[in-house]
Amino acid sequence: MNNRKDVKNFTLEEFEKELENISEPDYRARQIFSWIYKRLAGDFSAMDNIPKPLREKLAQSYYIGAITPLKHLKSRDRTEKVLFRLEDGNLIESVLIYAGRRVTLCISTQAGCKFACLFCASGMNGFKRNLAVSEILSQIISLERNLKYKITNYVFMGMGEPLDNYENVSKAIKIMNSKYGMGIAARRITVSTSGLVPGIEKFKGLGLQVNLSISLHAINNELRDKLMPINKKYPLDKVLKACEDYVDNGGRMLTFEYVLIKGTNDAEKDIDGLVKIAKRLKAKINLIPYSPIPGVNFQAPMEKDVKTFEDRLLKRGINVTVRESKGRDIMAACGQLAGTQTT
């Protein structure tokens, strides 16, 4: 691509300044954004309300990037997983989850992951790099071009730690939300974090009513240190304090994700700890039955044990939902994304 820049790496305000530098009015930026994000144009030549000389000038300095779908798998439960190749050859995966009229896209934010949670495949091959804004948005655009049904919800729960790539993720969210971009309501977007405290603190300043979800998975530092190495740097008390500050500063209701692992974090004391944390932060609990990954000896809980765990939380006044692990047969469930061609 030589020295050309991907337009999708710019917010509208940034691209307006780019056009200003070549003596073009700012309304052209809005027209170009409409072509890219609403009409899903992949080339400047399609933009017939832009003067041809400007289209040619744009093509000399800019391009509209894309990512290449390599494999598209469909689960027995309708879940779909797409393996994408990036321009530099790195691989990422995105997942579509169907639930009634809701179609949720699970978006990746990094190639690989540096945080290596024991129950997650994304970090098993190490961390490659952050995704650019354009690569985050291209997952949405690529899938929308090929779908009959409009995506209704967007979760940053794919490969990587979103708040470790905060600048690019926050820019992508602003473009998603902008009326001149994708026009997606902020409340239909959820960002998940493993507990990156500086990222949670930055997230307070996003200024949008985007949902925040915290991967909890343990109610004490001893177990959380084992399951999630990030806890050694940002222990549970610091994570919960950052969450408290987030809520106090006008953040939306928090959700705690809790992967339920048989014989590891499913005892009565775990229920007691979850109740305490959820009540302290007036948070919702999402229970996620563990989905097996190769080389890891954890076991998934029985369905009846998940129900018992849920019922005990409900009886103690906790807002709890069991998130069905969809797409296990194509390795698309929570924690199974690895970004490899072996699936």
Could you explain how this protein is built, in words?
- With 343 residues, the chain is an alpha/beta fold.
- Helices cover 32% and strands 20% of the residues.
- The chain has 10 helices and 14 strands.
- The strands form 3 sheets. Strands 3-4-5-6-9-10-11-12-13-14 form a 10-stranded mixed sheet, covered by helices on one side. Strands 1-2 form a two-stranded parallel sheet. The chain has a two-stranded antiparallel ribbon with strand order 7-8.
- Strand 10, helix 6 and strand 11 (211-215) form a beta-alpha-beta unit.
Strand adjacency order, main sheet: 3-4-5-6-9-10-11-12-13-14
Low-pLDDT ranges: none
Radius of gyration, Cα only, in angstroms? 21 Å
According to CATH, the fold-level topology of the largest domain is TIM Barrel
Number of domains: 2
Number of helices: 10
The span between the termini is: 30 Å
CATH class term of the largest domain: Alpha Beta
- What is the average per-residue confidence, as pLDDT, rounded to a whole number? 92
